[in-house]
């Protein structure tokens, strides 16, 4: 079946960029991205394409090319479902904050609402595609909801997890290592559904990179990929602590180890801890699924990746306190970087939030600079932790528009996101305006130790 109309429910970090690229590469398909968040849709439709709600290198150009040609953003979810032959579900699947599985299981309420809405609205046969990251066997639940409407509509359910990383979303979508499509490959209808999605991607992706599997393998591969990636970061971060105690340098160790082609060099960059909306959520979900199936050893194995990450964030913050003569009370600390990695304005689960919270508990005064994150986001992130009254967060945390202001009269500066511009700063100027001794903490191994020590900084870097 040739797809003519696509609807994507969820205009977030995944739905927006993914659909923009499909629309760009398949001009004959109409793509409508819908969301219940009116502000988000208004921003996607903003006349000035630089105001779209997600910052990703190259994304605004693609949106400018396809928007209002065959790419549309709307809040009319029913209409888009009704028109579509294929519906992607790309809504958020956060960790549950209540009830059974609280703090671990994925909250599937948004997914279920989508399924019920599709079931209610659909009058013609549809292919429903799981784009969100979901626990293995979610497709079964979707099937149960969709197939019990009694309206005679046939649904095929596919799993097509997304592997893009933020900051490189457009590149990842244009040139992915692989695209994974899971479907009911034992039935003719299932096979047809799979091949109609394969045909869409084949417009720009070589067929040998489009992988088809059964639905459960596809769902589980997504959780597995994130668990493996995060595990590498926690592994190298564990080594960073050992390096600091022994005179080894974690960058040298990572290089030496990564040159073994069986290990590979990627995802071995030691840091103040991984952040982002997915690694922690997906591993917790994996731990929960394993526990629910009675696989306690499997659960414990993966949980350790999270425990190590929590330890890394905490020990970085604790080291600041220790180095500043065991107290940061009333001291000004400049935080450079709030996003969870460079080239994104996303701050979800960013290490900066936790390091700052720790330092605030030690009564520090914090000044934050990030080139892409707005002040209200910084406050929202801190308020969400509920560690102190909201007024206190506003009183003790200042968000500024220049890195130099963040360092002005500070006792210490901490680099928490690896923005390129931090390498190029005039560090002599920053040093001059700081209190002495001027402490510099590099949570990203971004800065050159020798250069900074020559300027006069007391320098600390992860794993060195
Ligand atoms: P997001 O929060 O940025 O976007 C989700 C959007 O869905 C929100 O705008 C929300 O308003 C909307 N929504 C929720 N329920 C809805 C409903 N019933 N009807 C219409 N709209 C609804 O989330 P995201 O980062 O895009 O992630 C979406 C999924 O993709 C998650 O499962 C995530 O794990 C997965 N994923 C994310 C990334 C990433 O880099 N962020 C990468 C791969 C996979
Ligand atoms: C990650 C995966 O890389 C994507 O494949 C996946 O689709 C996505 O999660 C998801 O499911 O949401 P993302 O979180 O956007 O993508 O970014 P990453 O580049 O993976 O970085 C995650 C965190 O790990 C960041 O805080 C980053 O700074 C940190 N990291 C990464 C390190 O500390 N060291 C590294 O070597 C790599």
Automatic annotation (TrEMBL):
Claim: Oxidoreductase is one of the keywords in the record: yes
Positions with a binding annotation for NAD(+): 10-15, 35, 40, 91-95, 132-133, 166, 278-281, 348
InterPro entries according to UniProt: 6-PGluconate_DH-like_C_sf, NAD(P)-bd_dom_sf, UDP-Glc/GDP-Man, UDP-Glc/GDP-Man_DH_C, UDP-Glc/GDP-Man_DH_C_sf, UDP-Glc/GDP-Man_DH_dimer, UDP-Glc/GDP-Man_DH_N, UDPglc_DH_euk
Catalytic activity: UDP-alpha-D-glucose + 2 NAD(+) + H2O = UDP-alpha-D-glucuronate + 2 NADH + 3 H(+)
Source species: Christiangramia sediminis
Functional summary from the UniProt entry: Catalyzes the conversion of UDP-glucose into UDP-glucuronate, one of the precursors of teichuronic acid.
Domain UDP-glucose/GDP-mannose dehydrogenase C-terminal: 334-449
Molecular function terms from GO: NAD binding; UDP-glucose 6-dehydrogenase activity
GO biological process, one term: glycosaminoglycan biosynthetic process
Active-site residues, as the UniProt record annotates them: 278 (nucleophile)
UniProt name for this protein: UDP-glucose 6-dehydrogenase
Keywords (A to Z) from UniProt: NAD, Oxidoreductase
Pathway listed: Nucleotide-sugar biosynthesis; UDP-alpha-D-glucuronate biosynthesis; UDP-alpha-D-glucuronate from UDP-alpha-D-glucose: step 1/1
EC number: 1.1.1.22
